Amino acid sequence: MTSSVVHCPALFLTAPASNQGKTTITAALARYFTNQGKVVRVFKTGPDYLDPQILAQASKQPVEQLDIWMAGEEYCQDMLYQAAQVADLILVEGAMGMFDGEPSSADLAARFGIPMAIVMDVKGMAQTAAAVATGLAHFRDDVQVAGLIANRCGSERHAELIRDALPKSLPLLATLKRDEEITLPERHLGLVQADEVKDELEVRFEAAVEWLKETQDTGLLELPNAVPFYSTNQADDNQAIEQKLLGKTIAVARDGAFSFIYDANLIALTSLGAKVVFFSPLHDQVLPDADALWLPGGYPELHTKALSENLPMRQAIKAFFQSGKGILAECGGMLYSLDDLTDLDNQCYPMLGILEGQGAMRGKRGCQGMQTAVIPQGEIRGHAHHRSRSANTPEPVGYGRRQRHPAPGEAIYQQKGLTASYLHLFFPSNLDVTAKIFLAGQQG
Fold it and tell me: Which cofactors does this gene product need (predicted)?
């Protein structure tokens, strides 16, 4: 069968390392073209919950993750193809450095033919910035680089030194002055959640648009070249997904404490036939009528007192657990499931007590990485990213299999209908296992 093709302007924003300004510039570009009446679809490379919230507000469109290992090539291809059908511009924000990770941002860009723009913090260097950018641009033959974005450029003379040192094949797309008022706010695991600073972000987005307009190099303010995006041929085959959760209602915790939720996971649940409803462990006192619960990750350590003092909710979830119905508790959700949690102020509070053990924050050092959850129901991919530890927990039923290391990954616990782990699961990577986790002992 011949694949359908849709052409759409697209640009992949990458960098030589983290903390170069990729998210700030991606958000600024998204808002710049959105203000012009364009439909801008933004994607974020790799497992990330916070950047997509920022980028969704900037673009006023949903933001999805793209990761060849976690989601698969076909899934990524389908997401890009669907976006290209409605968008005037596709932006992809990379993760870490341009060639870091397996697969890397460069691997993703090369696979789908998206030109890359290199974002570089050029403070403290001039011609060297051109040398680094040139080396990145020519490191691999299968990667197309559109140019360099010089971030935190001190003056026009600074920009001129960089511009003159670049080869003609690598244009300077923009020279962006230092402006701390544009920088996005951060927290210990990354950017703060968009809902917490919505009004502040609006001010910063609009300021960032003016910041872009001040560049002496205007290549970034023009739509990039169109890229062909191809159908997978299976994109419209709804019969391929067996609705194993048809007629089931899944209640999802979503509030200031629990918000690490991929939109792709919610879409996966509905594609399996489930009805999704939301509740707040912080504010609600009763659970919705549901067949299963999902306690996702987030920042419970910032809300320990409120979570602990909401006794009606704690009792409701404990009764739900005792009924044997399915519960998935991921990272922050797992910490909430433990007997108690010690927060960043070293204060210890009782939690749900549906999983034996204690949780505690541990400052700056943390665990992260891509892993495959290996459990009795099968294998499903995901990732770990946490700065806490758990102790005195029961014997695991399985461990995460690390992507590139032989040591066991995160422990995975199952009791009654509860599945709990530090791992954040990506449901589309295995819909069958996803359904089994939520069905627990029920008949599908």
Answer: Mg(2+)
